Backbone:
C-alpha cells in the first residue's frame, strides 16, 4: 500500500514536470497541445475511492494551472476527467474480480482495453478543456480540430510512456 | 436531517464533482477577482523561482541572438542621441526643458515562462511589485508590443500575451492613421488580425500597424506588425486585415515593462469628465 502511494507521488511530480517543461513548449500552429499529465489519473488504482479520485484530479489540475497561469482551466478539466473515469471503466470493461493487484495499466489489462480506455479518457479531457478555454461555439470546427489533433498526440505520448516505464517482470 | 445525510453520502461522488467543478470554473471566469489573483500570487512564489532557475540554465544557449538584438537596439538609440544630430540653429536647447516631461519609464525584465501554442497564452516575468511593476502596465520589446501585465506578486508577474483571446489592443495604420482593434484568432503565433477599419479606406500590403496611444497603457507609435493581406467578409462594412507580428513570440527573452507616469492623472480626468456627463 505504502509503495503504491509513493509511486503515485513520484508519478505526479514527474508528469507535472514533463508537462510544463517539455509538452507545453511543443507548438504546431497552435493546434497541438499534448496533455500527458492525464496519465496520472489514468493509472490510479481501480480501488481508489471516488472522492479521493476527484480530489487528486483537482490537485493535479490546479498544480498544472499554477505553472501555466491559467487558474481553473486545467483544474476544471481534470476534475471532469476524474469524474468520467468510473463510467468509462464501466464502459470498456472492469477488471477481473479475483485479482486484487491488477491496475489499469497496459501490461495488465491488455493493449485493446488500454487503447479504448486511454482514448476515451483523453478525448473527454481534451473536449472539456478546449471548449472551456475557447468558451464559445464561434470557432467550433477549429476547436474540434484542436481537440482531435491534441488527443491523438497525447495518446501517442501516453503509449510511449507506458512502454518506456513498463517494469521488466510484468512484460512477459 | 438524517435524510440529508443519507442523500449526501449516497451522492457524494456527484456532489463533490459539482463542488470542485464549480469552484474551478469560478476561478477561471473571475480570474480578475481578488481570491483568484491571491491564489495565483501565492503559487507564483514557488513556480516563479522554479522557472527562473530553469531559464538561468537555458539562457546561455540564446546569448547570440540576445546580443544581436541588443546591438541593433543600441545602434537605434545612438541615432536618437543628441550628438547624432547636426545643430542647424544657434538657439540653446536644454534636454530638461519644461516643454518635455517624462511620461513613460521602462523596467527591464526577463521572460521565465512563455507559450505560443495555446488559445490563451500567458508570459511570466522575473520581476514584480518590488521592481515597480503594477497591473495593467504595457510589455514591449525593441521590436514591438508583447502584452499587458495582468497579475503581480512581490518578485514575479504574469503577462497576458497578445496571443490571447481576451486581447483587445487599439492599433492604427501608420500611413493613414485609421484606427482599429487588434485581435488574435488563435491559429498561428506569427499572425494577428486588425479589425474595425471601415471598408472605404485604401489599404496596401506591407503597411505598418502601430499602437494608437489612445489607451493609458501603451505609448503611441509602438510597432505591432505589417499588413500581409486584406479582405471584406460578405455582408460586412469593415475590413479583416491579417498582419504579421513584428515580435517573434516564440523567441522572447528580455522585455520592457512600460510605466505610464501620468496614468493616474489621465484616469482621474476621465472619471471627472464622465461625472460631468452624468449630471
Residues:
Amino acid at each position: 500500500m505504502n509503495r503504491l502511494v509513493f509511486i503515485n507521488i513520484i508519478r505526479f511530480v514527474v508528469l507535472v514536470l514533463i508537462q510544463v517543461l517539455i509538452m507545453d513548449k511543443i507548438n504546431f500552429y497552435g493546434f497541438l497541445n499534448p496533455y500527458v499529465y492525464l496519465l496520472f489519473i489514468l493509472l490510479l488504482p481501480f480501488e481508489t475511492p471516488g472522492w479521493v479520485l476527484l480530489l487528486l484530479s483537482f490537485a493535479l489540475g490546479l498544480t498544472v494551472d499554477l505553472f501555466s497561469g491559467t487558474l481553473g482551466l486545467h483544474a476544471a478539466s481534470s476534475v471532469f476527467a476524474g469524474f468520467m473515469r468510473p463510467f468509462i471503466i464501466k464502459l470498456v470493461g472492469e477488471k477481473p474480480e479475483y485479482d486484487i493487484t491488477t491496475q489499469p495499466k497496459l501490461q495488465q489489462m491488455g493493449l485493446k482495453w488500454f487503447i479504448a480506455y486511454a482514448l476515451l479518457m483523453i478525448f473527454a479531457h481534451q473536449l472539456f478543456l478546449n471548449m472551456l478555454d475557447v468558451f464559445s461555439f464561434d470557432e467550433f470546427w477549429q476547436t474540434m480540430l484542436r481537440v482531435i489533433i491534441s488527443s491523438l498526440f497525447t495518446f501517442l505520448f501516453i503509449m510511449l510512456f507506458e512502454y518506456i516505464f513498463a517494469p521488466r517482470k510484468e512484460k512477459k | 436531517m438524517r435524510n440529508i445525510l443519507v442523500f449526501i453520502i449516497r451522492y457524494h461522488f456527484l456532489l463533490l464533482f459539482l463542488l470542485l467543478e464549480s469552484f474551478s470554473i469560478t476561478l477561471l471566469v473571475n480570474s480578475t477577482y481578488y481570491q483568484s489573483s491571491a491564489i495565483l500570487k501565492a503559487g507564483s512564489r514557488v513556480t516563479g523561482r522554479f522557472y527562473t532557475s530553469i531559464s538561468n540554465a537555458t539562457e546561455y544557449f540564446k546569448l547570440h541572438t540576445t546580443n544581436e538584438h541588443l546591438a541593433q537596439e543600441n545602434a537605434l538609440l545612438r541615432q536618437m542621441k543628441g550628438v547624432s544630430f547636426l545643430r542647424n540653429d544657434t538657439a540653446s536647447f536644454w534636454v530638461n526643458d519644461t516643454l518635455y516631461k517624462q511620461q513613460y519609464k521602462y523596467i527591464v525584465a526577463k521572460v521565465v515562462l512563455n507559450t505560443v501554442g495555446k488559445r490563451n497564452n500567458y508570459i511570466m516575468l522575473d520581476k514584480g511589485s518590488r521592481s515597480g511593476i503594477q497591473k495593467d502596465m504595457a510589455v514591449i520589446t525593441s521590436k514591438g508590443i508583447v502584452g499587458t501585465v495582468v497579475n503581480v506578486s512581490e518578485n514575479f508577474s504574469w503577462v497576458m500575451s497578445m496571443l490571447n483571446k481576451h486581447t483587445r489592443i487599439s492599433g492604427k495604420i501608420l500611413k493613414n492613421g485609421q484606427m482599429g482593434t487588434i485581435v488574435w484568432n488563435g491559429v498561428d503565433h506569427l499572425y494577428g488580425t486588425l479589425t474595425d477599419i471601415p471598408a472605404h479606406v485604401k489599404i496596401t500590403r506591407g503597411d505598418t500597424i502601430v499602437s494608437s496611444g489612445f489607451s493609458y497603457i501603451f505609448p503611441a507609435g509602438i510597432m505591432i506588425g505589417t499588413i500581409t493581406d486584406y479582405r471584406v467578409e460578405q455582408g460586412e462594412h469593415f475590413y479583416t486585415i491579417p498582419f504579421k507580428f513584428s515580435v517573434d513570440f516564440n523567441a522572447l527573452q528580455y522585455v520592457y515593462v512600460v510605466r505610464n507616469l501620468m496614468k493616474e492623472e489621465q484616469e482621474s480626468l476621465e472619471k471627472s469628465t464622465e461625472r460631468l456627463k452624468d449630471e
User: Anything to note?
Assistant: Chain A has one domain: 2-171.
